[in-house]
Amino acid sequence: MKRALLIIALGSVCASVPAMGQTVVGTSHDMSSALPITQRVCVFCHTPHQPEGPPQINTDPLWNHTLSTVASYGVYSSDTLDAVPADIGGLNTVSNLCMSCHDATVGLGSLYNDPNIVGGEETPTNAGTVISGNANMGTDLSNDHPVNFIYDTALATLDGELVDPAGNPTAPPATWLFGGSVQCASCHDPHDNTFTPFLIATNVQSAMCLTCHLK
After folding, report:
1. Under 8 Å CB-to-CB from 14, ≥6 apart: which residues?
2. Integer Cα distance of 86 and 81 in angstroms
């Protein structure tokens, strides 16, 4: 009887524990299989002890992946585009961090600081393997949604078909913008693939697009 009550009690406790949030573990951004000894996951983008690397700014959360040296990715242009996007080539922006893998010029496991193991460091087995398939954005972004531009009330007013981000409950939350600008991570969350491909929100019936676009 006591054992039965204990089982019921444990079941109640487990049922009351909230489900864990989504993480990068188990997604296509989990490359821990390339580190057979340590099985580290975060190390492919972050390191707790920043080594000598590019100038670190607040968009670099202890960045660990080798940055691309592409000087220019180009920018999207259109007769109806009122935003003024800037080329991310050579800059240290959130989008440039993404492209350090997704332009397919740098190995997936090319790191500034390899994870420590007893007696040395473990170099990822995919250090020279570049990204392939649909994830390979290439080095020309002139035919992709523009990034690295300021999205504010002035732009919304000028365009006439954008949601004003200021004080509007239907506007994109501030966390979607980086220093007031649209970057790759304004639409994609590299740590959460709940809405494939790593979208920050559902795009069923273009819901995510309509957060910004009045169509």
Report:
1. none
2. 13
